[in-house]
Amino acid sequence: MSNIPQWSCEKFADETFSSAPVPGGGGVAALVGSIGAALAGMVCNLTTGKKKYAQYEADIQRITGEARALMNELMAQIDRDAENFYPLSQCYGLPAETDEEKAVKEQKMQSALKVAITAPIDIVRLAYKAIALHKELAEKGSKLAVSDVGCGVLCLKAAMQCGWLNVMINLKSIHDKDFVAAVEGELKPMLAEGEAMADAIYADVAAQLAY
Q: What's 48's DSSP letter?
């Protein structure tokens, strides 16, 4: 598998446009989320050292480090999502003529499905954490960059929702009810809270920019 994060923007878009199985929705979600976290870093770098925001300097330094880590982790999910999808893609071509072949294929499919959703699950988790950083930056970041807070949180909301869709499409085919319940039990409340938080931050930013 190519090191997708090293591709040019043009190549990423062209490969996504093509019939190639990756990058797809999961890779796009990871990239958009990484950009959303990067915008948090941008706001921090435009705020740090400014006298007007000296009272928040320690928080800004902390957020800078957290945003960098989340940006890198989200970017890493692009390749991880592609690599984890490969075993599942191979399963679709397995023979299923006899009962034995059907049983083998189903067993391998169930295992591969659980692997395939691991990156999208982490994309939801990571995007949620990055949204919370923007919540702080809407208050503590430079007002000259508050529009970037709004843009960042919209990217992260999209990444979180796209990640969840990529979980859902595979989760519905997994027969392990306890596994499905555990994933839904963690991610559904996180998704709802993250969406509400993102919407509130966007509304706050829009209000600050109103004229």
A: T
* pTM for the full predicted model: 0.95
Measured on CA atoms in the order 180, 104, 27, 82, is the torsion positive or negative?
positive
**Could you give the CA distance from residue 121 to residue 154 in angstroms, rounded to a whole number?**
19
Distances (CA, A) of 36 to 31, 71, 94, 127: 9, 8, 39, 8
* Alpha carbon of residue 98 to chain centroid: 40
Neighbours of 141 (CB within 10 A): 27
Cβ–Cβ under 8 Å, residues 134 and 156: yes
Which two tokens mark 37? 């976290």
pLDDT in tens, 53-67: 999 999 999 999 999
The letter for the amino acid at 140 is K
Per-residue pLDDT, averaged over 170-174, amounts to 95
Alpha-carbon gap, residue 5 to 31, rounded angstroms? 8
DSSP H stretches of helix in 117-145: 118-140
